[in-house]
Amino acid sequence: MTIGAIDSGADDEAGVVPDHTEAFIQKGVIKGSIGAGSLTWNPNLTVSSLSGISLQVNAGTLEYSQTSTGVGNLNAWNLADRAASNGVLALAF
To answer: If we measure between CA atoms, which residue out of 61, 71, 69, 66 comes closest to residue 35?
Structure first.
């Protein structure tokens, strides 16, 4: 997936043309399963972090349709705070 800057040319409420808008472009889906790993909860029961999440890839669609096997790992932190959230996803095919 790609999030990109697209000039829509539309005015906002103040009559100003924005620099860009965001657009979601679907290039396909990578399918598989989640293995081992852990997550940490915040006191309000939102997820705080993901640690050592192992991924097993077994299929893909559209641009990823040639994908039949692969592995991955996911770690993410500060997930309840949009401005401070961070993470790393590594995939190998």
So the answer is: 71
